[in-house]
Amino acid sequence: MDVPFITASQTQDGSISGTYNARSDNLERFWKSQFGFTHGLIIADTFYENVTRDDGTSQVVQFSPRTGEPMLIACLWSRRNGPDEELLSFAAITDEPEPEVAAVGHDRTIINIKPKHVQRWLNTDPRNLPALYEILDDRQHPYYEHRLAA
User: Fold this and answer.
1) Distances (CA, A) of 87 to 56, 69, 122
2) Which of 13, 76, 89, 102 is the most core-located residue (most Cβ within 10 A)?
3) What CA–CA distances, in Å, run from 108 to 11, 86, 111, 115?
């Protein structure tokens, strides 16, 4: 399996292009061209989420596993040809929030797969989607510490 190396890139207005979240309850509908076909991993030690404050403004919160171990974030990737250039994009797969993430006010958490599932996740069989859901369900559940991002 040849998985391309994709990095998030900033557009001229400062936003990130080509990066998304893929809800685990919508993989076979919205992500049907990728789920079971083009899987990847994001290896990270932290992730960020926007949380709405009591006054309605948004605050970026940083979440990191208390263990300090890197996360193996399940993702889907896509390659599309645009009018001017090729776009490589990816989507981190998310699910219902871990309790400590929900307590801060966010409604989703990335899926952090177990190391023993990496090869099966990357070498997918689109004819066996139940096996892929088993990988997503048998995930790591570290306690995510949080702090306000600068």
Assistant:
1) 34, 31, 21
2) 76
3) 25, 30, 9, 22
- Domain extent, residue 124, equals 9-43+68-98+107-140
Its pTM stands at 0.83
8 Å CB contact between 113 and 43: no
pLDDT at 79: 85
Residue 51 within a domain: no
Distances 46 to 2, 40, 134 between C-alpha atoms, Å: 26, 17, 24
In a domain, 75, yes or no: yes
Q: Which CATH number belongs to the domain containing residue 93 in this structure? A: 3.90.1680.10
Is residue 15 domain-resident? yes
| Residue 80, in any domain of the structure | yes
> Where do runs of H (alpha helix) occur along the chain?
99-104, 118-122, 129-137
- Pairing relation of β-strands 47-52 and 16-17? unpaired
Q: Tokens at residue 48, please?
A: 């960020």
Phi/psi at 106 (5° precision): -105, 150
Q: Which residues contact 59 (CB under 8 A, 6 or more apart)?
A: 50, 51, 52, 53, 148, 149
Number of structural domains, the chain? 1
